[in-house]
Amino acid sequence: MSDEKMPFTQHLEELRRRLIICFIAVAVGFLISYFFKERIFEWLMKPLLQVLPEGESQKLIYTAPHEAFVTYLKVAFIAGIGLASPVILFQLWRFIAPGLYQDEKRYLLPTVFFSTLFFVGGALFGYFIVFPFGFQFFVSFANEYITPMISTREFTSFATRLLLAFGLVFEMPVFAFFLARLGLLSAQFMRKQRKYAILLIFVSAAVLTPPDVVSQMLMALPLLVLYEISVWIVTIFGKKEKAADALKEEQPHSAA
Description:
The structure is a single chain. By secondary structure, this protein is mainly alpha-helical. The protein contains eleven helices and no strands.
């Protein structure tokens, strides 16, 4: 950690500079994604189209003149954020790096790499595992009186929210590692609070996923596994915890 304190105005200037870099990265990602907007949206729709009844119902609809255009903009923007995510994460870690010790800074690039990897892994898990089961469940309510006619706007909101939720929750091991390196999280604390963590995981799964048991379980089960992985990560890299234990052992001798 640097001994020289940075003035508050300099912090704001540094934050502004890194936000500008993030905005530029998102803009570049958006322009690239918009060029492939139809392919991206087709890929996004594929799990739903595979479970829709054949015929005219195997298409999405739009009910407003501008809806399709706005949908493509949203898809390109979200894909642009995905492309820019390594830059965004790197700028975030670089902003907080001056407040870290030298031995903590060497974990900066690995943290950015694994943050991106886990986010993409979570989104892919949602797409390849959760989407097929979730869409199959919702379409199963169709019968001779009810036909699914899904709009592009509703589908885009539903799909992107779910992918974002899975991407974020899969960041748990990365945040656990970072908090452990800062001495803010210990494996002992995580083991002690496991029952509350399990309750919070199921509540979060119920809030973040559609109101069906299948989707909720498909989010809760990976979260439980990620929590246990996080405990092991904190156990291995939580050096602050060892230092605290050593300090406690020395206190009786100093008192004597």
